[in-house]
Design goal:
Length: 243
């Protein structure tokens, strides 16, 4: 006589989530349901809704959950190392996917792909990070690299490191990007100082600086759009002519 197998609590709900995703992707999903679906991949027989909601409450946003450390994720009841691995893998894979969308593309003419990548990879970090996009002579992205992390000042972002990295990649032009963990994308006096220092150093070796973008919370500041890059380039030419 066959024994009936009792379904665990939430199994029907889990199947409905999976079917919903297979039918229409993440359209119509709440953020906690996205987390819940990820947690089910490493949790075969357990309701994951409570853990998903707890993670979202603790880290405030879906992006915050993805950016959380494995240690912090494992402090949530119902989330263990295997679950945390899945979440971090998804976050890392998404970063790489968005970065690869930029490679060999002109970011100046593909601003949506650029900002999608920047918001995802930098928008919710709790430490400042300074990225450089290295471009070839046709303004196509050769590589993207985080060169500096921590509190960024003119004394912690080294022009010689930026120039060395640009020359190593035979880059013709650069785009600088850094984030403000506060969420406010307005530039500080130190941001202006860093930009001017880097632009002058790059111009000296024949490398063009197209842009410096500050990423905040669902917002950004563009030095180029506000005319600051052009103004600094004029200042550099004037100083060169006087010399």
């Amino acid at each position: 006589m066959e024994k009936s197998v009792e379904k665990h609590k939430g199994e029907g709900h889990r199947e409905r989530l999976r079917d919903k995703f297979m039918d229409a992707g993440l359209s119509g999903f709440h953020d906690y349901e996205v987390i819940e679906l990820l947690l089910t991949l490493a949790t075969p027989r357990k309701d994951c809704k409570a853990a998903a909601k707890a993670a979202l409450e603790k880290f405030e946003t879906l992006q915050g959950v993805f950016e959380a450390s494995v240690k912090d994720l494992c402090e949530i009841k119902g989330i263990g190392p295997k679950n945390a691995l899945g979440i971090k893998l998804i976050q890392a894979a998404a970063d790489r996917y968005l970065e690869k969308r930029l490679i060999r593309k002109d970011p100046l003419n593909n601003s949506q792909a650029l900002f999608d990548y920047l918001y995802h990879s930098m928008g919710s970090k709790d430490r400042e990070a300074f990225k450089v996009l290295f471009l070839d002579a046709k303004n196509r992205v050769i590589a993207v690299e985080t060169l500096f992390t921590g509190t960024l000042t003119s004394s912690s972002v080294y022009p010689r490191e930026v120039i060395r990295a640009a020359l190593d990649r035979s880059a013709a032009a650069l785009i600088f990007v850094h984030n403000h963990p506060s969420g406010d994308s307005e530039p500080s006096p130190a941001d202006f100082a860093i930009t001017r220092q880097l632009l002058f150093a790059c111009q000296t070796v024949g490398v063009t600086v197209h842009e410096h973008i500050i990423v905040g919370n669902q917002q950004y500041f563009s030095f180029a759009d506000q005319g600051h890059i052009a103004q600094m380039q004029r200042e550099f030419r004037q100083q060169t002519e006087k010399a």
